[in-house]
Design a protein that fits this description.
788 residues, alpha+beta, Ubiquitin-like (UB roll), 6 domains, 16-stranded antiparallel β-barrel, 15 helices, 35 strands, 19% helix
Amino acid sequence: MSTLAGIAWSSRKGWWPARIKWSFSLALTIILFFPWAVSYAAQEDVQVPVKIIEVKGNKRIDTNTILFKLETKEGESFSIFKIRRDVKTLYETGFFDDVKVDVEPFEGGVKVTYIVKERPVVTRIRIVGNKHIKSSEIRKELKQFPFNIYNEKILNENIIKIKQLYQSKGYYNVQVTPEVKKVAEDRVQLIYRIKEGKKAAVAKIEFVGNKHFSDRELKKQMVTKEKTLFNLVMVFVNSLFGKPATYYYIKDLLEVDLMKIRQFYKDHGFLRVVVGDPIVKVDKKRGKIYIKIPIEEGPRYKVKSVDIKMGKDDPFKKEDLMKILLLKPGEYYNAKKMRKDVTNLTDLYGSKGYVNADVRPIMDTDDENHTVSVVYRIEKGKKYYVGRIEVSGNVKTRDKVIRREIPLAEGDVMNTMYLKFAKKRLERLGFFSTVNIETKPAEDLGDNYMNVFVNVEEQPTGSLMLGGGYSSVESFGVMGQISEKNLFGTGRSLSLTGEFTAKRVNYTLTFVEPYLFDKDISFTFSSYHDVYEYDLYDEKSFGFSFVFGKRIWNWYTRANIGYELKYAKITDVSWDAPSFIRDVEDEGAMVSSIILGISQDTRNSSVLPTEGFERSISVKLAGLGGDYAYYKVYANWERYISVNKLIDGSVFHPRLRFGFVNPLPWGDGRPVFERFYVGGQNTVRGFDPDEAGPEEDGDAIGGTKELIVNLEYLFPIVGSLKGLVFFDTGAAFDNGQPISLGPMRQSAGVGLRFITPFGPLKLDLAYKLDKKKDEDAYKVHFSIGTIF
């Protein structure tokens, strides 16, 4: 007798009903309480075939999808263990609330019916009660979406996600209550009801165990701040410039703070520093957070020795490499300097084609004497050459405009430094929002070639700008400009500018061709009309100039040669003006001149640089026709030096300017409009624009020479707001008056620098150090905008 027959027979005798209904729990009961059925089947080696499988109760889920998931198959032997695994598998799909199994005799085998109850579909998800976080931001965290099948597990995961989002923004008392609202037999809505609570502000941050650095110094390294009036302002200003800073407790940001504190210590020689897990106490009633950070500083290590180990056939001499290292014996160990050494050495090898040079610092620490010996092991690797240079992403800009900024050609020795310069040059063009340069092996060209891939994302280059500004000299003014920096995608620029202030009216048209005839020669044409009102007279002029420029020696040096034709006229001369000014009143003069110059600029920014230098010298030779024959020389030198040892991010900025104008042997004196006037915000602060120079009958007349020295120390306050202290000295000197320190005027003071959407803001308070009788002791200089 077969097992099934035995069951049927037993059923007929009253043991079971003729039809057996099995659920998952019933199947388990049979296995636990009627093991004889299984063992009997095993003993007799009897196999009961599954004749047919049916699925009932499914409306949305396709029957074939369910059958595919089952281990039980038609034609195979029936197994109660397979049934049990099938039920578990169907539950795990997340599609069903309930799964039952019917098994009944059928044509010499069994018929298995899976009866399922489908879970409802989520038709809508609502978020209620959120005020400080947008619903769209919350929805990004959710795993369940409308028209998905409802899943309680995912619902609970979403609650955790929402809480984590709120806690990341400082809401540690947030409550999230879910509601599953039935809208039909097979459809539900999910509602997340949120009680945000109050933000938990950081009331106090303290450190335990710090001896060499004060709490204040360590707090400066942190993004997380205490909620004070000053920090409220600082966090707001930082937010304007996208810089992270908060006075709320955000766990992820605090983790970053701990890393920064740890790195700060290592940058000052504390190799064994341990920054422990912070102790965070939450006062839910008052909405305040108290953070205590334990620190074990450990001993401070000095550098005992620094060495370089390199392989054979190295392209550099060891003594030359040693000169560029920042980490020096005898100094306290500085992890930042060591990282910079690795970067510099890697770049140096990359400039010789060794793109994959491996520079690895090996540290030998003497814990007894608290010293560390550093050896830079260099494996130069393979030398690479440039394969193909491919440009992508440019729609408007022509390929050649991009390629000419890359100082490499196919077949050249690969130079990673040149690629970095190329990236900077492309970014400085202002044509692209992003510039990415990558190198990849050129397998089709050989194992020592690399292709260069340049990808750019273009941005608008045309602009129509209307602006305003104010200065203590020229009062209020307005400016308008229409310009196109990338004319027809050629890299050429064209601009028309108009300036209108209380003392000046100016129109200027400028055209620039950066690569004339596709050569590294720039061409600039400018035409202008200018009216300027001085205290003693008005100057009206118009003219044009064109200048050719070429990069020489290196990427930051440029030589210029050009020509200028200018017509100028002095009008409305005051009755008390000097005679040499009154003599030329209403007499127009034509000046024809050649312009020569050379300039260098390595600044990392043209607005508020922190490193680099700018220096230039120009000579104007007038006398090729026209009414005057003279030469004018002007030189400028300035440098930006980071002095982080005093204040992190601070800069020392010295500047020297010198100029003179003299007649040529066949010339007729010097024109009034070429004289030097010293004083004011752009020369020597604390003085009027023409106060630091020669006078005649109490009136400033300008000079034929000038010397100006400015010393500034700039330091960060908050965000891009910078403070400065300065010392200025300078003067204009008249014809026959030698340049000497005696006549030079002096001032000192403090100021602020800030970048606004309207242009740079400058505010200076300058005191005269050599105040004369009847002179003001100080002056406030203020300007904002781009027109001054």
